[in-house]
Batch of 2 targets.
Target 1
Amino acid sequence: MPLSTRGIDAQDCNDAAPEDRAEAGDHAWDTLLELVTSRPKRAPDRKQNRSKRTEQQILNAALRVFARDGISRSRIADIAAEAGISTSTLYEYYKSKEDLAYDLPNSHLVSFFQEYRAAVVGKTSAREKLLLYLSMSADFAREHADWGRLFYLEIWPSVLVSETELRHSVDDFARIARYLIDEGVRQGEFPAGRNSYETASLLLGAVNQVIITWLLYRRPRNLTKASAEMADRVITMIANERP
Amino acid sequence: MPLSTRGIDAQDCNDAAPEDRAEAGDHAWDTLLELVTSRPKRAPDRKQNRSKRTEQQILNAALRVFARDGISRSRIADIAAEAGISTSTLYEYYKSKEDLAYDLPNSHLVSFFQEYRAAVVGKTSAREKLLLYLSMSADFAREHADWGRLFYLEIWPSVLVSETELRHSVDDFARIARYLIDEGVRQGEFPAGRNSYETASLLLGAVNQVIITWLLYRRPRNLTKASAEMADRVITMIANERP
DNA sequence: AAATAACCCGACAAAACGTCGAAAAAAATT
DNA sequence: AATTTTTTTCGACGTTTTGTCGGGTTATTT
């Protein structure tokens, strides 16, 4: 649980000190990080502690079962049993399997953004920030492989994701990459003249491909090394690209 | 229906004329193309024409319904109704919805390989072949958008694909890219010293990302142009990479 | 044209999903 | 601390979807 309750304070500095130093106090960057780490949780309307515990049990159980069987083969009854509750209780918390599946990855995703936010402090160049971002995203999937399988292999590419709340967090994922690419161009680390949207697709597509292959086949063996290499390689290519 | 019945003749040239010209008559390349265009169809044991028609109706209906509702929300009964048959008849052909969903993309995929095989004749450099391959893959998804949604957004990344027959065709997809990269290195078009597996991930990941984004959001508007640009850009980067 | 094989469907069984009202537990009120 | 009220849980039950089976229909073979 990194960073915890930083929610409010970064936002209301909007009208406060408008620093003019170009490098260090990057306003838009802070705002973006604040945004992605504070997407509101759905349905926080439970009163008793017992409920929070039950909800957590459901989430843990669902993650295990989904990762093991895939969403389509998983049964609500199995998840409820694994969570130690009755199926009807589960329906008190989520109105359907789909609802559960598409809410589930949210908390992990926010955790990832929080971890990144904490780790990126001190990095100055856009290139460093970008490399860290991509490396950390792969490492996060490795450390939370059950979540990774669910998110990268079932949720992210799904047609259904565009109808859910999760969509915003997914969009944030690309938004950060795009922001850093633009920043790199402004600071002269990357050549100008390219569509940053396309460049972001290139970067994310390449790294995600490595992650997905690892999640499916556990190859290459060392994901941390492979993804960092890939990220570094592609970033270098982009930096050296003739405009 | 491109190329139609070229199945057999290319195979029995295995023991025939072993041409030594390095460029034109590339044996391994022909063999690979032959392999990917002739993956055996599952369950060809139907005798009557009536059955072939019924099976085709099922496939067409399933493609429409899956693309419209997503696999998980689609109902067998809907597909059967759309195909103009009873549900129990559908079960004569496919033992489950999953079975149907994972067999469905096969024929289109083979068609794509066949179209590519026909179009690549005459291209000599590995770079040209690779560019054509990636461009055509995007264009094929655009022309068969229903199939594209099913294949790229639901089947390919799925955990379940690794258990199905379709896996082989999916593997073929990457194998061709890898082959062409290796060929490019041999012919000096690309610098040596890189893992061709990694380079293939980079290429496919980048282009697929463009395709997926288009399938989900219809952006960028012109997929043909965007994917060709992306492919060309990445191939150029790889060609210019310092070893 | 009779026999055999292939194909199709209605009726039924099984499994999974989802709802509801009442019981149990916790919190609030008196 | 007994009560009322609110929150949470669960078993019983209805609905939807999946999957099976035997017999009837159509095509093919002899």
Target 2
Amino acid sequence: MATIKDVADATGLSRSTVSRVINRHPYVAKEKKLLVEEAMKQLGYTPNSLAQRLRKRKTETIAVIVPRIANPFFSQLVESMEMVAGEHNFQLVVCQTNNNKQRELKYLNLIKTKQVDGIILTSIDNDWEVIKEYTNYGPIIFCNEYDENAGVPTVKLDQFKGGYIGTTHLIERGYTKVACCCGFFNSSLTDDRIHGYRTALKERGLPFRDEWCRTNAFSIDDGKRILRDLMHLEEPPDAVFTGSDEVAAGMIKEAKQLGVVIPEEFGVLGFDDQPIAELMEPGITTIHQPVKEIGKKAMEIMLSYDSKPLNEIVELPLHLVVRGST
Amino acid sequence: MATIKDVADATGLSRSTVSRVINRHPYVAKEKKLLVEEAMKQLGYTPNSLAQRLRKRKTETIAVIVPRIANPFFSQLVESMEMVAGEHNFQLVVCQTNNNKQRELKYLNLIKTKQVDGIILTSIDNDWEVIKEYTNYGPIIFCNEYDENAGVPTVKLDQFKGGYIGTTHLIERGYTKVACCCGFFNSSLTDDRIHGYRTALKERGLPFRDEWCRTNAFSIDDGKRILRDLMHLEEPPDAVFTGSDEVAAGMIKEAKQLGVVIPEEFGVLGFDDQPIAELMEPGITTIHQPVKEIGKKAMEIMLSYDSKPLNEIVELPLHLVVRGST
DNA sequence: TTGAAAGCGCTAACAA
DNA sequence: TTGTTAGCGCTTTCAA
């Protein structure tokens, strides 16, 4: 492989001058610039970015940490992040934790070992006290999941509102025994959704029951399983507010299996407004999240972090989309 | 940040010895090893991997090129690749081409500039003659999409068989006017599927019609649009073999919209066996592809490439899954 | 506008 | 078993 020295030798100039041409430095005589460019082409020279990175102390690489990339919500998030990163010639490293603390730590280490310039966390497994240490090595940003006390740049949605308007909608539809089935136990996002759910119940004078409030549901299969559980309770609910369209879809599928008619006998509300929400029969009433936008925004904040490291909290809007499942 | 020199100074040893400890070199006195480890902990030292990479000429990073990560097929592929890479402490950089040749080239350049050790291509946009040049810089592997003439390691499925068994199934169900609606025009994968489709038609003495054979369909919306097109033909088909479950789902949705009854009046066959195939009403009869396995296998070949750079072609099995749409 | 020289942090051949 | 030394390929003062 040709190196900068080869180009220097070929042109009779110094490595400095060649470097200046590579980096579009202003003070290079036009003729020498052309000479260098010619030689680079001739030799098939490409700068070794490993060397550039070591010297500049910049990797032009961002890591995004997700539970699982195959989860449609996260793959959409990553899609929009990659598009922004790509435009700026940054690379995006995908890290899957499977919600494992150890794996999250392993990936947080990427910033300590200078393998990436920054990390975007879309889920949080370790306590903030643990994660905090890594902020000494470079920017860490939250996108989707969050921690109020962290004081790092955050792009999120008003999850309280999501829980509130979803539950309120179910109640207005006439359901009186509303269950909820959210994601991670022990996450601010889930806490806020459940808080919104409980607030809506309270406002309308409906009961909250522990056995109707489930967490750690993510997949279609989780939805199926939990619906069956709920139906077998002594007092089954007549509607459910879920934390994702996948869970809602699994519930609808299983309800049909059990002969429960949706929405007449049981109402199901999703979250995210994934393509599947429109395809299901009946369509899933859901809370639309601007997934693409939050991913885009988070990456933009990351890429402009050096010039303005504000610890801003961006909150994007979400809204209800009514379909047939309620 | 502490460097190896700091550790050397703190212990009174040389950088070499510290380096040996870092790299688990056999010949280091146990006591000195402990001494070094103690000092590393004390100083909060972590090796700078940029420097290690430059020196070792290894990035421990693999790039995977996909059209769009939000496409469920590709997100599953990437999920399994990342899992294997992660186990080996390799990073996975995700690159989205959107089927743009320029973007593909930009990402192929990662290997030229030594930013990654290898590239896995899951789709192909440029001609092999163009891509070939990049094999001089490191391993390039095909996974999913392929090019027979390339002579690079390839993990694929028997797409001819997929087209053949899918179409045969439709014919056996009694459909006689079978259309097809595949992915990229100008890809070996698509060519082979269509070839299988045509072979099945021919064997059963059914006609092939140009206007029944569509390509460049990927999304739910493509499915909807094309179904409408097909239905408005002078002689509409009575079934369709599609290249993905998303397209099939879009078609089923649109058919309902148009009042076309599935499977009685129109049969739809998907490809991939995504979760959505089971959720749709009716369920989508589809060709199951072992997505996880091909991703896993491709990454395994990549990671073992140095020790055994065989240009093997691995072909994994696919099979029909019958549901309600045919 | 250019070049010499130092050095980013690390590894590895060689010598001891 | 350890240390010395020479780089990996590049950028960036500093001086000219």
